[in-house]
Design a protein that fits this description.
This protein is mainly alpha-helical. The protein has one domain. Helix content is 54%, strand content 3%. It is built from three helices and two strands. A hairpin with a 3-residue loop joins strand 1 and strand 2. The model has no long low-confidence stretch (mean pLDDT 93).
């Protein structure tokens, strides 16, 4: 059963999206492979393929990872003053890994919120 727009809870859609589940039912998956959005939910049949999240997931991922890595790098620098070569190896690697690990969950959350608000990503002003 497809929910009407007035019944769509943003919080539950966000929670289900972050879990990479269908924002409508919470049972089916919203992403296949790494970042590809499924056309339809396998469990409830909700159409998700028309939602275009575009640049929002990478933007939020950069904000999240940046707010984790920068303070951590500053704390380590102040407390231990490691060698420059070590910092130039550790921080970019950690940033890359954290970004790649976080991006699918953030994209799922963005898809969930867009679904709850009835947005497709192709709206014009």
């Amino acid at each position: 059963m497809i929910q009407q727009k007035s019944e769509r809870s943003i919080i539950s859609a966000l929670t289900r999206g972050v879990q990479r589940r269908c924002p409508a039912c919470g049972v089916g998956t919203s992403l296949r492979r790494y970042l590809k959005i499924v056309d339809h939910c396998d469990a409830c049949g909700e159409s998700l393929g028309q939602i275009r999240a575009d640049d929002m997931p990478p933007y939020f991922t950069i904000v999240i990872v940046g707010h984790l890595i920068v303070p951590l790098a500053l704390l380590v620098e102040q407390a231990y003053a490691p060698a420059l070569w070590l910092q130039m190896t550790v921080w970019p690697t950690l940033t890359l890994l954290l970004t790649l690990a976080t991006l699918p969950f953030v994209k799922g959350g963005v898809i969930g919120v867009m679904w709850a608000l009835g947005l497709r990503g192709d709206e014009t002003q």
